[in-house]
Amino acid sequence: MILFLKYNRRARYISDASKQARQALVDFLIDFMNEGEVADVIKDIPEALYIPIIYAPIEMLVTNASKHEVDDMNQYLDQMLAFTWETLSPEKTAGLPA
Fold first, then answer.
1. What's the domain range around 32?
2. Is position 34 within any domain?
3. What are the pLDDT digits (tens) for 56-88?
4. Residue 48 lies in a domain
5. Model-wide pTM > 0.70
6. Which residues of 81-95 are buried (b: 16+ CB within 10 A; e: fewer)?
7. Ranges for the HTH-type transcriptional repressor C-terminal domain (predicted)?
8. Which of 23, 48, 65, 89 shows the greatest Cβ crowding within 10 Å of its Cβ?
């Protein structure tokens, strides 16, 4: 994610759909990192697993936003955050290799 943002920060986006998709990705990352649960949930997850787990909802978010398949972006962001937190919950990650 960090590399994506780093290498695309100066990219020029021509269409409004591209701008909206990029903004949706940034909003998702900001919301995800600002959640108070981040420190409690993520600290026990192997770093190699963290990126793949959150990649799926981000990919879905950007893809669906760029195709205008999202009726309510705020509701969709909330759903993606809930999905990601559920995936990262201690119950789901118990027993994973460190």
1. 2-6+15-93
2. yes
3. 777 777 777 777 777 777 787 777 777 777 776
4. yes
5. no
6. beebeeebeeeebee
7. 2-88
8. 65
